[in-house]
Amino acid sequence: MFGHNQVGVIGVAIQPSISVGERSLEEILFDLTHESLTDAGVKIDEVDGIVVGANDQYDGRAISVMMASGAMGGVERDILSTPSAGEHAFVLGALRVATGQFATQLVAAWSPTEASSLAEVQRLAADPYYTRRLPIDENASHALQASVLEHSVPGLTDTAQAIVRKNREQGAAAYPDLPSNESNGSGVRNPWPLRDRMIAPPVTGCVGLILASEDFIRERGIADVAWIQGMGWATEPSFLGDRDLGTLPGLRAAAKQAYRHAGVDDPGSAFNVGEVADQTPYQELLAYEGLGVCDRESWATAATNGDFAAGGRMPINLSGGALSFNPVFCTGLIRIAEVANQIRRKAGSHQKPGAEWGVAHAASGFAMQYNTVAVFGRGRQEAQ
Amino acid sequence: MSTPRVGIIGIGQSVFQRRREDANYPDLVREATVLAMDDCDLSFEQIDAVVYSLSPDAMVGIGNAERLGVDAVGAKNKPFLRINTGGATGISSVAAAYYHIAAGACDTVLTAGADKVGECGDSQTVLNKIWDPTYERQLPLGTISMLAMSGVRYAHKYGMSEEDMARVVVKNRSHSARNPNAHLNKPTTIEEVMASRYIAWPIKLMDCCPQSSGGGAMVLASEKFIKQNNLDAVWITGVGHSSETYWMGDRMGRGQTADHADAHALAQSFKRCYQMAGITDPKMQVDVAELYSPFSNTEFHAIEAAGLAGLGESVSGMRDGEYELGGRIPVSPSGGTLCTNAIAVTAMIRVAEAALQVWNRAGDRQVPGAKVGIANGNGGDHQFFGTMVVEA
Amino acid sequence: MQFLERQETWNITYTHALGETASWFYVQLRDHAKIYGRRDAKTGRVLVPPRAFSDESLEPTTEWVEVGPGGQIEAFTMVYAQFQGLPEPPYAFGYVMLDGADTAIGGFFKGVDLTEPEKAAEQLAIGKRVMTHFDEQRKGDVLDFWFELDQS
After folding, report:
1. C143 to chain B: which residues are within 8 Å by CB?
2. Are C103 and B133 an interchain contact pair (Cβ–Cβ within 8 Å)?
3. Chain B residue with the nearest C-alpha to that of C97
């Protein structure tokens, strides 16, 4: 248990790829709010507060939470925004419920594709003092990280390719009605060493969750609950040059925090299912290691054996991950929502039968600067 | 409420100025952070998590500038997230830090940030982009014209004059003259304010806050940690937020819930934090208020929303000197937002100043014997309101 | 010690989808010089400009209602300072509740001498009647119309 009070996810709405041009962003969020409420079986009047991950530069609106608030029931309600990452909205929402001062929270994030260049948007995050004159966007930072890993683990390209195939097959099965992304745009080549399809083109997407307190869940007799057993979040330092891009101490710290709360001693065998950051397949591999489910020495074997594929010992990214659908800014919160749905047994065609314990990992920023880990279980924890 | 208490144990703030050529953006964050850490005498190893306070990125010209601030706040490999609720960001960040501890997830949380408003050239250029691109951004809206229209409605409803507005400036400047951290700190007169040029009717140059550079930081801790380490603290006993519609035009016309003249959701937010703190009669129970008023006219509806005066009644209270240092309930003894506005941390400074007051550490601006202080922050187009009660 | 500076410009263009409601509104404005609002069934308020949903009831709005062209001033200001990227001062703008509407829509006030602020403020008082004027060449934008004091 990560706090004084237990917190569960009781509602989820995931839109991993939305066709653009028909609805304004406000209208998309209005629909998302209703979908989340309906899934939870609660009315907006029962929502005590809202936390959104709203990013001004992606949205093209300064203080973007202003636009979102009305669409999400913010009027006369307590709404906060965590622009650092979509997944941070989940963290703060869960903390708020754990205080016992809130019975419920609506948590959401989104990622439009209305900017003329997402790369240019991301480049604004390079500091203007030392870095901005370099052509660094998030994909370039992921490529730098991949090249460090390639150096550390010879022959890694094949393993990375296997991850791409796995996630894309899983994505096609999970969301058969959504258009698949056959390549990375019209002949645009990814920065070396990222091969074609190793980053999916950005799409518009959004995700919402309803969190509730133990008391609320009990009083309502809500059955399908993904209880948050543990939660950890941490950041890597500011400058890429200060980091060893081939390791993620921040993820280690986040996982340690989450596992301590959840009482997970052996992450390698603790989970039936997982969703992890996979802007590139190298991110997924780093996540395996950081979460303690597979060291780099075993990456190739695990990929060959299908340990983390559907039907394997711990299927990862059954939703297809960001390699299938890439609404960039909210892919992290989608990972969390997907695992919550697995534990609620509401993952539809990509449900892992009998999922009892799951782990979600989200990463944001240049070369995975922010890492967030959430552990979900079907059973309520005994009070400590 | 059975939740264990959360205390404030450290406060740091810059000496705010128009520009800081000697320090870049993370340097300013560091400056305030170090001051707050020194204030509570903790080491960075003792900090469990960090909440980063930053409103629009465009104001400092760096996208997701909190990433660059990670080192400045010592957050490497630690829980870290950022808050943005516009001008309310600072108090929302303190609230978020409070939730980390009240949840039982952390014992010590640092919240910090900084702004260099002057570096974006013209904050109103950035702030025009807060309006919706569908119907309103084509208009020359800025935060000054937005709150000028609130002033026009307030004057229409309750009879506030431009001299009344000037009276707020004179009061706050007399306060800021006693605050070594304040940006505009020269005392002034009603005549001087009235003679300043119009910016957006009825707001004149001297009715406006400055664009400030500087940082703010606070360290919060659990009651358990404070007792175990024998630390000095003041306590956050009430926390609230509420919001109004994004659409200013919906706060007018017929049948509106919130009127743009007033601060409906601010009143609601205060009600929430008063209820939590057990305050039933703010006029009697509150000793000092640090209210977020970037323009002179908005201090009136803020005083009323805080329950320190009835609707429209703060104007006569101001004439009678009730809100001056030495008056019935001193409002913004620091000089307030009107004298210093480093947007990302302005609302945090409101909490910090209220805390210094009930801590009896407010120097020349001390309200004698203050035990209960309140603070607020407003963000967006008068849309998001955070409030807090701080007690000795 | 010499303190250095560096200039950086953010240059990103955003193409925002307006959605069905605003699209229909702007087509009527552009092609027919008419202004419409949407009714919030729960509160009965006619929202102008029209929204697909009410942020108060969190329900979809239900019907189109033609409003204006007359209306009354709900808020105004006259701006006398130059802001980067905003029009050259002085100018007056604010919010008007059009006849048949329950909320106010923003627009410029024209035809008022702004040289002396006090005199201008007497003319542009809250509650004063105004008339909507439409540009001959309309693009489908809120700047296709403006308000002038009602002379009748």
Report:
1. 138
2. no
3. B253
- CA nearest C142 in B: which residue? B135
User: Do B350 and B290 touch, CB atoms closer than 8 A?
Assistant: yes
> CA A360, CA A291: separation in Å to the nearest integer?
9
- Which one of C1, C103, C119, C147 makes the best mutation probe of the B interface by having the most chain B beta carbons within 10 Å? C103
**pLDDT by 10s per residue, chain A, length 384:** 788 899 999 999 999 999 999 999 999 999 999 999 999 999 999 999 999 999 999 999 999 999 999 999 999 999 999 999 999 999 999 999 999 999 999 999 999 999 999 999 999 999 998 999 999 999 999 999 999 999 999 999 999 999 999 999 999 999 999 986 665 454 568 999 999 899 999 999 999 999 999 999 999 999 999 999 999 999 999 999 999 999 999 999 999 999 999 999 999 999 999 999 999 999 999 999 999 999 999 999 999 999 999 999 999 999 999 999 999 999 999 999 999 999 999 999 999 999 999 999 999 999 999 999 999 999 876 544
Cβ-defined contact of C19 to A75 (cutoff 8 Å): no
Amino acid (1-letter code) at residue A301: T
Residues of chain A numbered 215-234 and touching chain B (CB < 8 Å)? 231-234
Residue B368 has pLDDT above 50, yes or no: yes
How far is CA A286 from its chain centroid?
15
Q: Which of B128, B136, B255 lies closest to C102 in CB terms?
A: B255
Assess C126–B contact: CB distance below 8 Å, yes or no: yes
Cα end-to-end span (Å), chain B: 18
Question: Nearest to residue B294, comparing CAs of B341, B246, B349?
Answer: B341
pTM of the model: 0.97
Tokens standing for A103? 């019975």
Residue with tokens 């974006």: B120
* Tokens standing for residue B85: 């609720």
Q: How far apart, in whole angstroms, are the C-alpha atoms of residue A71 and residue C55?
A: 6
How far is the CA of C117 from the CAs of B173, B197, B201, B204, C122, in angstroms? 26, 11, 7, 11, 9
Closest CA to B69 of B101, B40, B30, B110: B30
Please count the CA atoms within 13 angstroms of the CA of B10 that sit on its side-chain side.
29
Chain C residues near residue B265 by CB distance under 8 angstroms: none
Give me the residues paired with residue A52 across strands: A81, A108
Interface pTM, i.e. ipTM:
0.97
Return the pLDDT at A188. 65
**Please, where are the H alpha helices in A61-182?**
65-71, 86-98, 118-123, 138-152, 156-174
Nearest CB to A125: which of B26, B67, B103? B67
Chains touching chain A, criterion 3+ CB pairs below 8 Å: B, C
Best of B134, B137, B259, B382 to mutate (most C CBs within 10 Å, chain C): B134
The partner residue sitting opposite C79, judged by closest CB among B61, B145, B153, is B145
pLDDT at residue C1, rounded to an integer: 87
Interatomic CA distance for residues B205 and A372, integer angstroms: 46
The Cα–Cα gap between B329 and A301 comes to 71
Report the sign of the C-alpha dihedral through residues B308, B314, B318, B320, in that order.
negative
Among B residues 234-273, those touching chain A with beta carbons less than 8 Å apart: 239-247, 257, 265, 268, 272
- The three-class DSSP label of residue A160 is helix
C45-76 pLDDT, tens digit each: 999 999 999 999 999 999 999 999 999 999 99
Per CB-CB distance under 8 Å, the chain A contacts of C14 are 60, 114-116
Give the chain B residue whose CA is nearest to the CA of C45: B255
A107 contact B CB<8A: no
Q: Which residue of A has its CA nearest to C14?
A: A115
Report how far residue B347's alpha carbon sits from residue B343's, in angstroms, rounded to the nearest whole number. 8
d(CA B83, CA B90): 8
